[in-house]
Recover the amino acids of this structure.
């Protein structure tokens, strides 16, 4: 098979196709988006494979679980915070177990390049008591994903593949292996899959009993390796995932390196860890994300007679992603000679809304009205429009999680904020805005929800939206918002006065109002024109 | 033999297209490649960079260590300055001198160019002018790739091949403009080098 240059995300996707994947589901989110983009392309060329964007991560997970129930292989992918949305089916799927192999691919975003937090998904894998792979490079991303499907079927559990931004969005070569056939249809047993207490208790016991076997699998895995330096008992290093690369990048400079344990699977390979720790006085733990391994090693009371260095000891930063330089310092090496840099005041260039973006026109209208209401607050959501928080707009004051704007606007209104405004995109509304609006409509809360309908998921590159256009208007009405308070505006500079008037009228209405600002994303419109 | 390159510019300027062309050429020549990109939120008109590493041996880190970069190849002068501390002491800067102004506090261009000129081995290219000459102001990235092409460890003919591959879906005119941009950039670098 031919060597290909792939993104880390794409290496996972290709491996899933070669592993006999039947279906894949996801919701767009950086840095996981490219997994599904690749699978959708692959599905368009293959008759059997199904790959499509879901309405949100919870639905995606449940769809994948349905495929697994049917005995077939499924992949579900999402960014780290997406797993919070899918946490309910995720946690319970460890108890139902899997029938067909289920790979759960989670891409973490240390340094928050495009995220609200930098939570570490290895904790979720541990929480659910399942197996987790953490690749250090593209070939491993491919090989681990192939292995994940087999392991999921052998052990009857979902298996996580934990990626981080720098692997997801880095390209390198991958040598693929011959593809495998799809599984035949084979229904799961109701006694496994119906989590009534009587079944769930038995299933949980079974999951607990699998744990020792999972540790053994980890200990025997080729993805972990221990290189002991017999002559040096001072320092040993434990490095996981891409952190291993930063250690190796710097170890070129050491004539005789410290003992090094590479970790690629969880639960931790206990024996290998013990062998390293026994051999040395000081252990340096280098890992991307939270100090997960370091904490395990320390426990509550530490390891008697041993010094443990890492993020908790301050030798590495607790926040942000690692880099070759940061790891170099932790290894006690001098910085490389660098180019002399002239003193220069660098102006920052933050991301911003495109020239002519419809969101900008909505924000202008909203700002124009709200300057007359000093007590106003605009709760916002996740999407390009979150950039409305920056000047020159400074139009929104919150962004927490998918759909939070609507629930927070209701809470804010009930606490006395007037006017209380939510600003949410069409796809985010489809993801998590429907249920809080159902509630706000039932309570007829005095608030305004502005839905920015640009008919796409713009921030992640233009994936389809499920709550746009005519069907969006029907949904809003169906949720119980009075028809006369569902207003449609077209955000254009020439409509500024008219749009401001509509917003003002709905502020004057004492009850729930929804204003839908409809204009297509410019980037997507341009793409469509280009492809004819 | 290895080559570590920082590619810099502003979201939308086609940094990833430069990366694609060099990556593909390197793969064809049997080199190891690692290339870290920026996707997502930062792409919306923000500062973007790519760490591109080519080597005959195994490459570990996806990111280039500070002090290891052999070349900074930048489509925008202010962006060039952002990454100078990645450069090894004897490294080279090949930068556009055409500013992309989308922020209110964009510094004085002359001061930026002076700061780049102090960066040891450097080449400043009027990519905007040459791109227009090539037939499309959107080809500045290929002008800059052309300007750097003499220094790259991959062959010119392979770069040309993958420029064709990259732009083919957008039609013959776009391919021609980008190939022309590449040649103009390459020529300009030769002229500038001679002058010095």
């Amino acid at each position: 098979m031919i060597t290909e240059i792939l993104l880390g995300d794409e290496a996972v996707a290709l491996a899933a196709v070669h592993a006999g994947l039947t279906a894949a589901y996801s919701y767009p989110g950086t840095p996981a988006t490219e997994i599904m983009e690749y699978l959708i392309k692959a599905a368009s060329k293959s008759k059997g494979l199904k790959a499509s964007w879901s309405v949100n991560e919870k639905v995606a997970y449940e769809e994948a679980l349905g495929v697994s129930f049917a005995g077939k292989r499924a992949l579900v992918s999402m960014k780290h915070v997406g797993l919070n949305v899918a946490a309910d089916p995720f946690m319970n799927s460890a108890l139902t177990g899997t029938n067909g192999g289920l790979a759960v691919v989670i891409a973490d975003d240390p340094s928050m390049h495009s995220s609200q937090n930098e939570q570490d998904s290895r904790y979720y894998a541990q929480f659910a008591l399942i197996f987790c792979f953490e690749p250090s490079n593209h070939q491993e991303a491919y090989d681990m994903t192939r292995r994940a499907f087999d392991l999921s079927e052998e052990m009857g559990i979902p298996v996580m593949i934990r990626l981080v931004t720098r692997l997801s969005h880095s390209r390198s070569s991958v040598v693929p292996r011959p593809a495998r056939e799809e599984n035949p249809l084979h229904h799961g047993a109701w006694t496994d899959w119906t989590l009534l207490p009587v079944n769930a208790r038995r299933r949980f016991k079974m999951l607990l009993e699998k744990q020792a076997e999972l540790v053994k699998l980890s200990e025997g895995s080729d993805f972990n390796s221990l290189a002991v330096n017999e002559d040096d008992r001072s320092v040993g290093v434990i490095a996981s995932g891409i952190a291993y690369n930063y250690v190796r990048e710097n170890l070129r400079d050491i004539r005789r390196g410290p003992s090094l344990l590479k970790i690629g699977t969880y639960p931790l390979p206990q024996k290998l860890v013990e062998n390293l720790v026994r051999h040395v006085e000081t252990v340096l733990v280098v890992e991307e994300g939270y100090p997960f391994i370091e904490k395990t090693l320390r426990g509550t009371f530490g390891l008697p007679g041993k010094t443990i260095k890492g993020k908790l000891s301050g030798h590495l930063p607790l926040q942000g992603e690692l880099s070759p330089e940061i790891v170099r310092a932790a290894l006690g090496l001098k910085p490389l000679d660098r180019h002399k840099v002239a003193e220069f005041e660098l102006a920052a260039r933050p991301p911003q809304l495109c020239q002519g973006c419809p969101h900008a026109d909505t924000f202008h209208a909203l700002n124009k009205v709200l300057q007359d209401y000093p007590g106003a607050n605009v709760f916002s959501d996740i999407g390009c429009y979150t950039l409305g928080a920056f000047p020159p707009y400074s139009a929104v004051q919150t962004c927490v999680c998918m759909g939070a704007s609507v629930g927070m606007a209701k809470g804010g209104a009930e606490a006395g904020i007037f006017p209380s405004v939510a600003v949410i995109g069409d796809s985010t509304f489809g993801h998590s805005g429907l249920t809080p609006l159902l509630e706000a409509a039932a309570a007829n809360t005095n608030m305004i929800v502005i839905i920015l309908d640009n008919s796409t998921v713009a921030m992640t590159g233009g994936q389809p939206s499920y709550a746009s256009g005519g069907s969006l208007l029907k949904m809003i009405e169906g949720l119980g918002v009075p028809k006369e308070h569902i207003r449609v505006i077209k955000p254009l500079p020439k409509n500024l006065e008219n749009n401001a008037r509509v917003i003002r009228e709905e502020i004057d209405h004492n009850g729930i109002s929804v204003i839908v600002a409809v204009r297509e994303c410019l980037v997507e419109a341009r793409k469509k024109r280009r492809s004819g | 033999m290895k080559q570590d390159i920082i590619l810099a510019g502003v979201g939308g300027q086609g940094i990833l297209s430069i990366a694609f062309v060099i990556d593909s050429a390197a793969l064809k020549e049997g080199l190891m490649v690692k290339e870290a990109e920026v996707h997502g939120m930062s792409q919306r008109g923000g500062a973007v960079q790519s760490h591109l590493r080519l080597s005959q041996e195994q490459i570990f880190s996806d990111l280039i260590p500070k002090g290891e970069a052999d070349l900074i190849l930048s489509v925008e002068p202010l962006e060039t300055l952002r990454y100078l501390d990645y450069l090894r002491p004897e490294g080279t800067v090949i930068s556009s001198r055409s500013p992309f102004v989308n922020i209110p506090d964009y510094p004085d261009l002359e001061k930026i160019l002076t700061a780049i000129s102090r960066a040891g081995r450097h080449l400043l290219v009027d990519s905007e002018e040459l791109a227009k000459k090539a037939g499309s102001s959107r080809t500045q990235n290929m002008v800059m790739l052309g300007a750097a092409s003499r220094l790259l460890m991959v062959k010119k003919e392979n770069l040309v091949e993958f420029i064709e591959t990259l732009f083919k879906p957008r039609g013959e005119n776009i391919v021609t403009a980008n190939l022309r941009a590449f040649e103009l950039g390459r020529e300009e670098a030769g002229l500038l080098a001679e002058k010095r």
